[in-house]
Give the backbone structure.
Amino acid sequence: MRREHRLNALILGLVLAVPLWAWATSEPFTITLATRAVIFAIAGVGLNLALGTGGLVSLGHAAFFGIGGYAMGILASHAQTYTPLFEWPFVLEGTKSMPVIWLLAVAASALAALMIGALSLRTSGVYFIMITLAFGQMFYYFMISWPAYGGEDGLSIYVRNGFPGLNTLDPIQFFALSFAILCAVLYLVTRLRASAFGLALGAARQNEARTRAVGIDPYRVRLLAFTLSGAITGLAGALFADLNRFVSPVMFSWHTSGELIVFIILGGVGRLMGPVLGAALYVALEHHLGGLSDYWQIYFGAILLGVVLFARGGLIGLIVGRETAHD
Amino acid sequence: MTFVLLVEQVLNGLQFGVMLFLMAAGLTLIFGVMGLINLAHGSLYMVGAFAAATVAGATGSFLLALAASLGAAALAGALVELTVIRRLYGRDHLDQVLATFALILIFSEGTRWLFGSFPLYLDIPPALSGPVALPFGIDYPRYRLALIGIGLAVAAALFLLISRTRLGIQIRAGEEDREMIAALGVDISKLYTLVFALGAALAGLAGALIGAIQSVQVGMGEPVLILAFVVIVIGGIGSIRGALVGAILVGLTDTLGRALLPVLFGLVMEPAAAMSAGASLASMAIYILMAAVLILRPRGLFGRA
Amino acid sequence: MTDTPVLELRNICKRFGAVVASNDVSLDLRPGEIHALIGPNGAGKSTLIAQIAGTLPSDAGQVMFEGRDVTGLDAVARARAGLGRTFQISSLAMEFTVLQNAVLGAVGQARTAFSLLRPVMKDRVLVAAAEAALEAVGLAEFRALRTDELSHGQRRQLEVAVALTLRPRAFLMDEPMAGLGMEGTAAMTGFLDTLRQRAPILLVEHDMDAVFRLADRISVLVYGEIVATGRPDEIRADAAVRSAYLGEATP
């Protein structure tokens, strides 16, 4: 446990140090890569609440990532053209303010997660995997066939949205903002995991009958976990859209869902920092392997296969050993 | 929408449905017997299509192409089962999802590396090209009608295989009780390889047959895979009959939704708005169907309670 | 023994296809008593416990708890109503520590499962309740161990401890002595003997010495039917019981 704490601090330190070093040596592209990793990490930490702590293997979290992204895209595009989103029952104007966008991204993705969760949590195991995958894909096809916001081509935003007191166009400032959110999300998830709710969620994963026998309804606990998880992933989606100043249905694609799970398994399932290490590793591999070969995903697939078959605890598991009981 | 068009759309839906069945049957068998969720099933579909396109290009024979699709997909399936999949049987679903996701990456990029990013084309054989005249003055593509026939024939063969043959008895025993079947003296690992290869062959065949009306390209299996999952959720995991009913329901819902919803919306909306609203809703129709089944029967139409 | 029953089964039935698991079972559990349910393997004891706990719906009949019809309630609602059960096969969160499992019960009892941000293992009230329960079953020194590191007997004890944290108004215990060994069985017997003062116990148990020492009343279940109910000495003398257990021909 203590070892894992130290490792966690080291991981977070590295994630902070790389872009700072890049900033000092004027390599903005590296900062952007680090920002990408941090945003993926937020999405992964969100998914890990459901998947790691709750044992809910969602293959549809791209839906929430995409909804967060489109919340940004839609609000910013309306602000760009000075047209309201709708005028009835009340007028909703577009906005270029990140805090407002985040709020709506979180609300929209939480709502979607609540609805998808309410349906798919009626089932479990392999059904749950297939159903979350299917609902995720529903959003993908819907965005492709819905022409109002760019359809298949997506939406471009000309200028990155603003945050009070920051110049978000400066890569290091946007990185700092994303990093601060990652820290806030990590803090939130740590608190959640240590709470009575976290205990009940872990119990529901390990032994459903036991959870019921103490008078706790696993369905409701899981539904809340799934909703919070979707909301966090949605927030990451809004940041990701702002990083690229572009959203497209690709954010909804099931490959995105798969990649989010990959972050978690690379780092270590159920570990607080698993997705952070995993996302950093993924972005590094994507960058370096991608530079070596056009077909880098073959190598990446092989690495992933190796991790799944032979290193089940992920990287953190390799370093600190089996997860010990805490407290 | 005229009667003729409606019949055509129903036939299209059926054709789509029976092809989905070929995919879903393999997936549901593999899950039923081995308890494995295989995301890479779509890759086997793709392998079948590429094998068929290559052989057809070299020999000009559609029959040889179909044989190649069956053979190549079964071989790829058996190979993957022997090297990777069998390590996953005892694992939890998360490991299965990730490992088979990794296989997709390897298959897709490997195919891109071998064949390039441009789509290949597989021609409809002359004997099956052109329209065929049906009653009520309906002209329908002969090839699509043949697909319905082939799909139903394969479904019938599969039912016979499972209800009448030794292999079928072993498969059913495996679905009932995995420990039991080992006690009966069946070579379980051989049975598993065989079932996996059989599922792969069905997927490969579907890939080749569909490849002739769409293009053969990397990633072609993934949309079909996800639809096959919807089919299985609707039909109930492990049930071949459920897969058939689910596949036809999904095929009809999707096809008719795309054809009819814009028309229906057109009754109350302007044409342009009706087109886009209808198309958007149609893209969600099968998922709404799935949600409805889930609310009414969480284990699927033919799933065990 | 004229008190109104805490728990009452009225004509409970359950069939699995052609197999009748419980057939028209009626029995009651009165304040302050241990009512043992015995019977040969496959008699349907665990099925009956599951029907009472609400994990298995009954085909017919009623379950009354404290005068209230709970037949339509699921396992969660029945646990909340005050039915505390232990499982025949230990059913615990194996990755948790012993203490965490007990705290889980306390969380269920306090209904704070939706407390999102307060660290639960630092909640004095819940942890104290959990530790008291561990103390009562003799597991206090193992509180920091991972549950999957416990012996089978210790897991049985933890099952009972978790049930204690629920502060139930009736206990359903499915073989709490299994795998305990001589010493453990003696300790558990002594403990259950005092526990009946807190809440009555419906006890399924194979250890006949313990059953006849503890039970105020015994019901014998054979092929899903109650063939006899009575005081231990009555049961000992009952012909139907002897025939069911010992294969003696009924005279």
